[in-house]
Design brief:
8 helices; Purple Acid Phosphatase, chain A, domain 2; 21% strand; five-stranded mixed sheet; 304 residues; six-stranded mixed sheet
Length: 304
């Protein structure tokens, strides 16, 4: 009877650790607005090498990254070890280059379903009517047991910066114009536009806050993240834990910027990740101790 209890506890702990380990091995990476920072092939290759060291499952490039250029898209597709997905930004459609973007990428919107999340790549340049039509067509195909991410170039939740018509610099609709029933099924929104539009003027680089790797708004109870770069090359590594996410910004100082140019919030997130890894080590130690105790108990049981 004692042996059965020990085996049950052992099996339970192995299942618990396996679940934790499975969740810890599903990172994905997000960045956007790379055209102003990843300005040479060498810069992109350094950036790609840094991403590959993170061993992501997926990489999402959210616009303004010269995706209308075939050689650049091929670089990302062929050299990144992860699967790569894209959303267009306003820079991808300037001077009539939308067709080139489509030729390189193959879609403007798409839905990716994985075991750890639903990812909706949305073309935020179009009208709200087009967005609603697309979202309504796919929303019932989502895995309801996994979190759903809406990935765009523009901050679709932010009505402060707007254009008069679709396919201009900013979005052309209010957030409330997007179907509320659809948005109620979205767990996270991530945008790839640059922070300099909000936290500095392009005409005066000294005034720009280069420390921002992402920032968070909560709109209609949806966490909304901005993750685009400008003068500091970075990407965000995102991991999912029980439908919650944790974000780790990664700077690539060999290109531009400085590894110290990371905000206090990001330093805190690094500490969280460190504590998470430390917690995993403690669990493994606990498991090993349990196994040893089990073996000793079984040994004495059969040798008494």
């Amino acid at each position: 009877m004692l042996i059965r209890k020990i085996l049950f506890l052992f099996t339970f702990f192995i299942f618990f650790i396996s679940k934790q380990y499975a969740e810890n091995t599903h990172p994905f990476i997000v960045f956007g607005h790379g055209y102003s920072t990843l300005v040479t092939k060498k810069h992109r290759e350094e950036f790609i090498k840094k991403i590959n060291k993170m061993n992501p499952k997926l990489v999402f490039i959210l616009g303004d990254s010269e995706l209308e250029k075939n050689d650049i898209v091929l670089d990302y597709k062929s050299k990144l070890k992860a699967k790569v997905f894209f959303s267009p930004g306003n820079n991808e459609i300037k001077k009539g280059t939308l067709d080139k973007y489509l030729d390189n990428v193959g879609y403007l919107d798409t839905l990716l379903k994985t075991e750890f999340g639903n990812f909706i790549l949305l073309n935020s340049l179009v009208s709200s009517e087009s967005i609603n039509l697309y979202l309504k067509n796919i929303i019932n195909n989502l895995d309801t047991l996994a979190p759903t991410f809406l990935l765009t170039h523009h901050r679709v939740w932010d009505d402060n910066l707007m254009s008069l018509r679709p396919y201009e610099h900013d979005k052309s609709y209010l957030f409330k114009d997007i179907d509320s029933n659809v948005m109620s099924k979205i767990d996270y929104i991530i945008a790839g536009n640059s922070s300099t539009q909000y936290f500095g003027l392009n005409s005066n680089k000294k005034s720009i806050n280069k420390n921002i790797c992402y920032w968070l708004d909560i709109v209609n109870n949806i966490p909304c993240y901005s993750m685009g770069m400008k003068y500091t090359p970075f990407f965000n590594v995102i991991k999912i834990y029980d439908n919650d996410i944790i974000i780790r910004p990664v700077i690539t100082p060999n290109i531009k910027g400085n590894s110290n140019n990371i905000s206090t919030k990001d330093q805190d997130l690094k500490k969280v990740l460190k504590n998470k890894n430390s917690s995993n080590k403690k669990i493994w130690i606990y498991i090993i101790v349990c196994i040893l105790i089990s073996l000793i108990t079984v040994y004495y049981k059969f040798n008494m």
